[in-house]
Design a protein that fits this description.
- By secondary structure, the protein is mostly helical.
- It has one domain.
- Helix content is 78%, strand content 0%.
């Protein structure tokens, strides 16, 4: 009777899996440490962010960047789990 060959993932794939797990753990740590601040952004926080920007394009980029970060921190880890 022949034994089924043991499947070993190549070293590169193993490293990629470890890196993927490290990224997920890092994102979860950032979420856990900043949950309250990120979840409860108020209009005054957004207004302060836009007033600190040097122009209209910078203000728009700052607000869009903030919401992109929120999306990455709240949606992407949920998909990876």
């Amino acid at each position: 009777m022949r034994e089924a060959p043991k499947h070993k993932s190549p070293p590169r794939q193993r490293v990629l899996n470890i890196l993927r797990a490290a990224v997920v753990l890092a994102l979860l740590a950032v979420i856990a440490l900043n949950w309250g601040r990120l979840r409860n952004l108020s209009e005054s926080d957004i207004a302060a962010l836009t007033q600190a920007a040097s122009g209209l394009a910078a203000a728009i980029a700052a607000v869009l960047g903030l919401y992109c970060v929120k999306a990455l921190l709240f949606v992407i880890p949920a998909m990876l789990l």
